[in-house]
Amino acid sequence: MAVVTGWTLNQPVAAADSSTDTIGDATLLEQMAKLAGDDAAARKQVLFDLAKSGDSRLEAFLENYRTGSVYLWNGQIVVCTETEEDEDFNELAPLTHPLTGEPVLGADDKQTKPDILDLEDISPDRAGRLAARSALFLLKLSSPDRESRLVAVKKSGTPPYNAEAIPFLEDMAQSDTDEKIRFTAKESLLLIRLGTDVPIDQVEQRWAAAGQLAEMNSLRTLPMLEEMLRDEGFSKHGQAAREQCEKAVTSINSHQSFVNWVGYVFQGLSLGSILIIMALGLAITFGLMGVINMAHGELMMVGAFSTYVIQQLFVNYLPQGMFNWYYVVALPSAFLAAAFVGWLIEIAVVRHLYRRPLESLLATWGVSILLIQAARLIFGDNIGVNSPTWLRGNVEVVQDVILPFNRLFIIALCALCVAMIYTLINRTKLGLRMRATMQNRDMADSLGVNTRRIDSYTFAFGSGLAGLAGYALTLIGGVTPDMGQNYIVESFLVVVTGGVGELLGVICSGLGLGVATKVIEPMQFGDFTVEAIWAKVFVLACVVAFIQFKPAGLFPPKGRLADV
Fold first, then answer.
1. 318: which DSSP letter?
2. What are the b/e assignments for 324-339, b being 16+ CB within 10 Å?
3. Contact (Cβ atoms closer than 8 angstroms) between residue 498 and residue 554
4. Domain ranges of the chain
5. φ, ψ of residue 150 in degrees (nearest 5)
6. Which end of the chain offers a freer environment for a tag, N or C, measured as fewer CB atoms within 10 Å?
7. Is 484 exposed, middle or buried (0-12, 13-18, 19+ CB in 10 A)?
8. Three-state DSSP class for 290?
C-alpha cells in the first residue's frame, strides 16, 4: 500500500505559490484535525473558526463533513465521498485533499486507496451536523466575494434566524468595506431583533427596531410587519407596539410607492425608446415618403431574428469566451438585414404604389403576412436570445431604485439613433436630397437628383431602423414571428401624435406613450386592475381624443412641409 508522507510533498496544493497562502493552508489543516476530538463544544468552535476564514474551498469540506465523508487517516484529515471494491471484495477508500479536492497521491504518484477500515470515522452527530450547516452559512458571511457576502447577509435577516450570525453581522455593520453590505447587515440585525421574542425588560427595544427600520426605508420589513399586525394574538403586545408598527408600515409604504413609480417610469422610458426607434423609421417611410408600410413591424422581427442567427453562429462556431461579442456584431447585422429586406420590398412592391396610399397599405399588409409565415417555417414559433453578461447586471442609483443595464442600453441606443438620423437628414448631402425628393419629387428630378435611388435608400434606411428596434427588443421580450404586430399600431400612433415627419414630435410622443402605458398598467380602481391590454385601450382613446383637437399632432409641419 502506498504511503503518504505529507501534504506538501505528495499532494498538489492550490495556493502553494506564496508562503503566506501555504501557512494559511497549514493552519486550516491543523484546525480541521481538531474535529476528531471528543469535546463537542470544541468541535463546534472549530467549525466556526473555519467559517471565519472566509476561504471558499471550505464550502465543499463543510458539506462533506456534514454528510459524513471526512475521516482521520495517519493523523491527517482526508475526504472520501465514494468507496470502491477490489477483486478480493475489500472496500477501498479513494482519498482526496480536504481543501483542494485533488487526489491524495502516494509514492507511486497514484491516488491512495486504503481499506475503509483503516480510516477513523469522525462523522458528526445531529448537533454537529447542525453546527456544520451553520458554519457553512457563516462561511459565506466571511467570503471575500462581495455578492456572496451580500446574499448571506440578506438571508441572515430571514426566518429561521441564525443566532450565531449576530456577532458576524454586528462586525460587518461597523467595518465592512462595502456600504451596501454595511446597510444590509444593520437591517438584518434589526429584523432579527424585531422578529424574535424577548424578555419583558427588552420589549421596548424590540418595537423600537420597527421605527429604526422605517427610518431606513427597509422594504424587507414591510411583509413582516403586515403579517404581525394581521395576527390576532398581536394585541398582547399592547397598543403602543401596534401604533409603532402601523406608523412604520405607513412610512415604508410611502417609500415603496416612490420606488414603484420610479420603476414604472423607467420601464416606460425603455418601452418608449423602442417605440421611438420604430417610429423613426415610420417617420421616414410614412412621414416623408407618404407610404403606409404595414410590414414595418415585420422588419422589426427581421432585426430580432438576425440577432438570434448571430448568437447561434457565435455559439456553434466560435470559442465560448467570445460569446459576449455576439451582441456587438448583431447591431450592424440587424440594421443591414432589415434594410436589405426593406430594399427588396421597395423594389418589388412599394415602388409601383407611390402616391397611392390605400394600395400600398394593402400590399404591404400582404407582405407582412408572407414574412411572418416565412419566419415561422424557418425558425418556429418561439426562440430565445440570451443577453450578454455585460448587460445582465443593474445599478442601484438610490436606495431600492434599481436600473437594469439592458434597459439603460436600450435608452442609450435610442439616443444614438436619434442623433444619427438628425445628422443624416440635416447635415449630409444624402439627407438634403431625401428632403428635396419628398417635398417636390419633380423639382428634385429636374435638378439632377436620382429620385428612384433616393426612394430605395430612404425606404431601406427606415427599414433598418425597424431592425434596430427588434435588436433592442430581444433584451426585454421574446422573439416570435408575429412580434411586430404588437408594436406597429403603437408606432403609427407615435408618428401621428407627434406630427408627421417631425423628429422632435416622435421623441416626445414616443416617450409619452411609453411612460403612460407603463404607469397606467398597475393602477387599481377598487377590485379592478387595469393591466396591459386595458392600458393600451385607454392610451389609444386618449390619442384619438387628442387628434380631434390637434389633427396635425404636437408639432405640426410648417411652411412648405405643411402642404406635403
1. S
2. eebbeebbebbbebbb
3. yes
4. 7-128, 154-237, 257-563
5. -65, -45
6. N
7. buried
8. coil
Cell of 506: 416622435
First to last CA, the chain: 96
Q: Which amino acid is at 266?
A: F
Using DSSP's 3-state secondary structure scheme, residue 352 falls into helix
Q: Which residue has the cell 462533506?
A: 64
Encode pLDDT of 348-377 as tens digits: 988 888 778 788 889 999 999 999 999 999
Residues 6+ apart with CB under 8 A from 267: 407, 518
CA distance 532 to 37: 64
Per residue in 151-181, pLDDT tens? 899 988 888 888 888 888 999 999 888 899 9
Distance of CA 375 to the CA centre of its chain: 28
| Residue 430 contacts residue 457 (beta carbons within 8 Å) | yes
Measured between alpha carbons, how far is 560 from 494 in angstroms, rounded to an integer? 22
Complete DSSP assignment for 205-262: HHHHHHHHHHHTT-TTHHHHHHHHHH-GGGGGG-HHHHHHHHHHHHHHHHHHHHHHHH
Residue carrying C-alpha cell 380631434? 548
Residues 6+ apart with CB under 8 A from 72: 33, 36, 78, 119, 120, 122
CA torsion sign, 182 to 183 to 188 to 193?
positive
C-alpha pair distances (Å), 257 with each of 94, 310, 384, 423:
58, 41, 33, 40
The one-letter code for the residue type at 292 is I
3-state secondary structure of 544: helix
Task: Compute the distance between CA of residue 304 and CA of residue 473 in angstroms, rounded to an integer.
Answer: 7
Question: What DSSP element (H or E) covers 188?
Answer: helix 179-195
User: DSSP string spanning 158-170?
Assistant: SSSP-TTHHHHHH
Strand (E) or helix (H) holding 71: strand 70-73
Question: CA-CA distance, 296 to 428, in Å (whole number)?
Answer: 25
Q: What is the Cα–Cα distance from 271 to 266, expressed in whole angstroms?
A: 9
User: Which ranges of 380-499 would DSSP assign to H, the alpha helix?
Assistant: 405-427, 429-439, 441-446, 451-473, 485-498
Q: Express each pLDDT in 398-454 by its tens digit.
A: 888 999 999 999 999 999 999 998 898 888 888 888 888 877 778 888 888 888 888
Class of domain 257-563: mainly alpha
Listed in sequence order, the residues at least 6 apart from 68 whose beta carbon sits closer than 8 Å to its beta carbon are 121, 123, 124
Identify the helix (H) or strand (E) that includes residue 524: strand 524-525
